[in-house]
Amino acid sequence: MGNLKQSILACIFSIITIAALTFLTYKTEFGIFLLASFGSSMVLLYGYPESPFAQPKNVFFGHLVTTLVGLFFLNFIPLPLYIIIPLAVGFGVGFMILFNVTHPPAGGNPIIVIMGSVSFGYLLSPVITGSIIIIIFAIIINRLILKKSYPK
């Protein structure tokens, strides 16, 4: 029964968090707050908040590092997409591990960045602002509602 409760709560809190980002993106003029990999972040933040990969440092810097890597390859490595995408993903994963900020959902960010040909502004919105928002939601929900010691 614990697994059912955990899955229902993860579902509800993922809906709430992504709804807030969606509202900010589509119903305000504040900018873009949604990043596809944030959907995967929900799995860790609400399903497995005790995981080292779900800790705020990992969420924030994992998304930041991999997006920076994607932007670097997109803008400064003049090679075909079929070469820079796997290189960017590999380097992004490598840097997350090197800097001890591994957040598996962020591994997809270089693909998103390169395929979307995003600008450097993407780093601020949605990556930095969105990451901060999902971390705040995770802290509030895990600590105050679920009574879990998050972050660890």
The chain-level structural class is mainly alpha
What number of structural domains do the residues give?
1
Tally of separate helices? 6
Termini separation comes to 25 Å
Strand content: under 5%
Q: Element order, helices and strands? A: HHHHHH
Molecular shape: globular
- Helix share bin: over 70%
Work out the number of β strands.
0
Describe what this molecule looks like in 3D.
The mean pLDDT is 96. This protein has one domain (2-145). It has helices at 2-27, 36-47, 56-76, 81-98, 109-116, 121-145. The chain is mainly alpha-helical. It has six helices and no strands. Helix content is 72%, strand content 0%.
Précis, in short:
It contains 6 helices and no strands. The protein is mainly α and 152 residues long.
Index terms:
152 residues, mainly alpha, 6 helices, 72% helix
Topology record:
Elements: H1 2-27, H2 36-47, H3 56-76, H4 81-98, H5 109-116, H6 121-145
Helix pairs in contact: 1-2, 1-6, 2-6, 3-4, 3-5, 3-6, 4-5
